[in-house]
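Here is one chain, start to finish.
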Amino acid sequence: MHDSAYRIGELIMRIYCDLPHAKVLEIGSMNVNGCLRDLAAPTTDYTGLDIEAGPSVDKIIVPGQDFPVEEKWLRSCDGVLRFRA
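Its structure:
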């Protein structure tokens, strides 16, 4: 992840999410060279989605299908993040 994307993600999470109590969904979460999950509190309900398994990926996205998270959980998210590596 580029340093600037990491810093912007950090600002967004700190300003808009009460991290110890937040629900955060990251789309494209595979940790290739750093990831936003590192910024979350240990108690943050953090779910990472990507198109293949890997570090920091909790659930796999199948193109053309709904996200593999419950709609009720998704509607109660405090933040949905997507940054390019």
